[in-house]
Fold this sequence. Notes:
Layout (H helix, E strand, L loop, with lengths): L8 E6 L4 E6 L6 E8 L5 E9 L4 E5 L7 E9 L6 E7 L1
Antiparallel strand pairs: 1-2, 2-5, 3-4, 3-6, 6-7
Amino acid sequence: xxxxxxxxxxxxxxxxxxxxxxxxxxxxxxxxxxxxxxxxxxxxxxxxxxxxxxxxxxxxxxxxxxxxxxxxxxxxxxxxxxxxxxxxxxx
Length: 91
């Protein structure tokens, strides 16, 4: 979400295949990204998926360790909104 409160993108995660898809939904000059952290490993950054350009979606996959807890953080690059946690789940 942008500082204005406008939704800037979307993300979906499918556990089978550990597939994360990030979409940029607003033509505003910013890109949207989601970063995955392994909370069971002290918050270690696992990977980031970034999409830029209205209507553009970018998929990414990474083999996540079963039984670990992961957090998903969104960011709109270039905005002053900063990162925000969007979900925490156990694999």
